[in-house]
SCP-like extracellular family protein
Amino acid sequence: MKFALTLLHHESIVTVMLHSCYKYVSLSALAFAALATPALASTSGCDLSDGLSLEPLAYAQEADACFEGLNGVDYDTRLERQIQDATNATRAAAGESHLEYQVSLVQAARIHAMDMAVRHYAAHEDLEGRDHLDRVRTFDRAILIGASGANIVVVDSAMDADAIMAALRKDPANAANMTREAFTDSAVGIARANGKTYVVQLFARVDGRLETPLPLVISGTENIRATFADNRLQPVGWRLTTASGDTVARGLGTRMTDPLKSGEQAYLTLDVAYRASEYALRGPLVIGR
């Protein structure tokens, strides 16, 4: 028996002072009555029973191990691409541009789908409080994101790409994300376990990239010169902010020199100007050596 349950359905614009970051997130679930399912054994060093580490280096290592395999959980790259292609077909029919496939979005989507499958929940944040953008900023060392969005659906494992697309599009917020003009990149992550398919679809507007990818652990002077998708964007400055939003370092120019204490974690944000407005472009997570 199938039934629909909307767990979260909202569209929000988050503004911090003059800097705007847009997030569009929606979550729906079908065939979601019973998540009390058996525990899943680990393989290749992957253990999601208590989640991924809060320490970023360990988090990245544990995620890599999980991508190599987890007993009882399968991911389906063919189905992921089918949903990606179907989304682009939907956009084309609506007169919107093609979404580029982004590897770091796949990584962030897939590890979250696997975590939900193992720990039996459905949410945009994991049980430790990390959201989609946190995951992307851990995996990707160069991307600069101006807007992001996400769709989540949990369905019966027998459902194919067409049925999953129909399930996603039943939620108006999901459907709106698929055709949102602001987005330039997308990816889908899928995990199958205990007769269910966990689907995480991520979207982003990639406004630029760092010319030199930042290492996760930084020391000395780091180059943060960026190339922007729109040459009308003008750099204003850079900030390093904690997960709670506190600014721990800021500056001008294209270099950072010893901005963090040893072990201190922060996210790079580049502030840019376009005409009379300023915008925040979200960059990688970094740790002081």
Observations:
- The chain is about 25% helix and 40% strand.
- The CA atoms of residues 156 and 216 lie 38 Å apart.
- Residues 56-209 form a domain with the Pathogenesis-related Protein p14a fold (CATH 3.40.33.10).
- Confidence is low (pLDDT under 50) at residues 1-21, 29-43.
